[in-house]
Design brief:
Number of helices: 14
Strand order of the largest sheet: 2-4-1-5-6-7
Strand content: 15-25%
Structural class: alpha/beta
Order of helices and strands: EHEHEEHEHHHEHEHHHEEHHEHHEE
Oligomer: single chain
Radius of gyration: 23 Å
């Protein structure tokens, strides 16, 4: 799973990356501070994993993680190569989800590339550049397919129709409604890695003053963003970096308490990014290792077994499943079995978020 942090220059992208990763990205008060995308592997905060570790005391703990990419700031004309646009847009294409940072605070000491702070305008600038790049991608594919379609090739004719519908959507509505396409058509669309189709989490970078009491202006911005159907969170990113820099857990907790926060905004962001991609978590648990694994919601047991090892999927026999709450209530796998709460499931079982599973398979 890979998520890219995007936004205009000087909105707090690299500072956010620093909050999320041990890899410290350079951050400075001028555009294009980030030229090569910084990449960090970030553990997903998981209280269920912590509870299992406390009960089992394993030799090894392996949490879920997400790869975060800090992509340099886009500007108007990026789709035409302005700034370092083409390179940046290619970096976004390689991600599964977009974390779009919007600057929602005023500070005369930090320049804004557009000359003023207007988060909704900034959002439109980025989305317009993503749209233009998609139009370019679709037209290139259209040029290639048109030649085959003219020969009467049915597959090419159908693909050409899909491409024309995509262009109409982007030109008339500025967005692609994927629900208007059939599942087999979606597979063709997916092959183009269109930027407009990537799920987005908007991060409103706010001042510390807005943490406890959101201003009316901020409430309006958040409400407008939510109407797009995207998830929205707000973070005082510079303050988060200060919390993150504290080495002592008690000091960090005291800082959070003073701000009236239960947990860092960075923890919420990572979980939201995980949810953004319709991903869930299952666990394998034993004395040697307790591990969290990511799987796509709605997956059946053999597919999920294959995440651990392809042999598990090929030779799948059954899945021995314990619900997380049952494990927590009884305190051990043995006691769960004695209580009759361990369930044996076959190939059609749809794995649920939080399942603790032992797979049986033929070698």
């Amino acid at each position: 799973m890979k998520a890219g942090i995007v936004g205009l220059p000087n909105v707090g992208k690299s500072t956010l990356f620093n909050c999320l990763s041990n890899t410290k990205a350079q951050s400075a008060n001028f555009p294009f501070c980030t030229i090569e995308p910084n990449i960090g592997l970030v553990n997903i905060p998981d209280e269920r994993l912590n509870s299992l570790v406390e009960l089992i005391s394993p030799e090894k703990i392996v949490p879920n993680s997400v790869e975060i990419v800090d992509i340099a700031g886009l500007v108007k004309g990026a789709s035409k190569g302005e700034g370092l646009g083409n390179q940046f847009l290619s970096n976004i294409r390689e991600t599964n989800a977009i974390i779009h940072v919007l600057r929602c605070y005023k500070d005369d000491n930090i320049t804004h590339v557009e000359g003023s702070v207007d988060p909704l305008r900034d959002k439109e600038i980025i989305e317009f550049e993503l749209k233009l790049k998609d139009v370019e991608t679709i037209n290139k594919r259209k040029d290639k397919i048109s030649r085959a379609a003219k020969t009467g090739d049915k597959k090419s004719i159908n693909e050409l129709r899909i491409l024309e519908n995509l262009l109409l959507m982007l030109n008339n509505e500025n967005r692609i409604k994927i629900e208007d396409f059939k599942s087999d058509e979606y597979e063709f669309i997916k092959s183009m890695s269109l930027l407009s189709l990537k799920p987005i989490l908007f991060v409103c970078n706010i001042s510390e003053d807005n943490l406890k009491n959101k201003s009316e202006d901020l409430k309006r911005i958040i409400s407008t963003l939510k109407k797009t159907g995207s998830n929205v969170i707000s973070m005082a990113i510079k303050t988060e970096e200060e919390i993150n820099d504290l080495d002592n857990y008690e000091d960090r907790k005291m800082f959070l308490d003073d701000l009236g926060l239960v947990e860092p905004g960075s923890s919420i962001l990572i979980r939201e990014t995980h949810n953004l991609l319709s991903l869930s978590t299952f666990y394998t648990a034993g004395k040697k290792e307790v591990r969290a694994w990511t799987f796509k919601k709605g997956s059946k047991a053999p597919t999920v077994a294959g995440i651990i090892h392809s042999d598990f999927e090929k030779g799948f026999i059954r899945a021995e499943v314990i619900k997380f709450q049952d494990y927590l209530n009884y305190g051990s796998e043995l006691k769960v079995k004695e209580a009759g709460k361990l369930k044996t499931e076959g190939k059609e079982y749809i794995v649920m978020d939080g399942d603790i599973i032992n797979f049986r398979f033929n070698t």
